[in-house]
Amino acid sequence: MAGPLVLVLLDRTERLRKGPDDRKLKERELLEALAELGEITPAAAAMKTSLTVDEAQKMLGDLAGKGHLKPRAEEGGVVYSLRGRDRHEPPQAGRPPQALDEPLSERELEVLNLLALGRTNSEVARELFISLGTVKSHTGNIYRKLGAKNRAEALARARALNLIP
């Protein structure tokens, strides 16, 4: 029982040692490299910044999950690019209207975006600070609302409806 508590305390101590602005500085550094290159992989981000590959991958995934970056699968990994006018994409003032009988909730859209990035249910639970059972409940609702039998069908239907990139 003391093991998880020790890990939490060590993690908190590490975050305090780094300072509250450390993440913002690293994020700014990552975005500057992305702006310079136009698109970036986690490995390239690690070479151009002070981030490790794991840190870059997590930050890029988080930014893509929030809709700030556009992920694109390529052989060997995922390439991220900026969304919006500077990448010749139409501006996204809000989500397009959903052609569903019952629209997805904001939380279901968050879960759906993480699933589209290839996250497992466990990874989604950790990123959103919710239980695995809650993720399964949300995915069940997503499948039902999209009329899908599995994850692949749900993602294909969501892309067709422009709910996810």
Automatic annotation (TrEMBL):
PROSITE patterns in the cross-refs: HTH_LUXR_1, HTH_LUXR_2
Gene3D superfamilies referenced in this protein's UniProt entry, alphabetically: Winged helix-like DNA-binding domain superfamily/Winged helix DNA-binding domain
MF (Gene Ontology): DNA binding
InterPro entries on file: Sig_transdc_resp-reg_C-effctor, Tscrpt_reg_LuxR_C, WH-like_DNA-bd_sf
HTH luxR-type domain sequence ranges: 97-162
Region (Disordered): 74-104
The entry's keywords: DNA-binding, Transcription, Transcription regulation
GO biological process, one term: regulation of DNA-templated transcription
Keyword Cell membrane annotated: no
SMART domains, per the entry: HTH_LUXR
Protein name: HTH luxR-type domain-containing protein
Organism the protein comes from: Rubrobacter taiwanensis
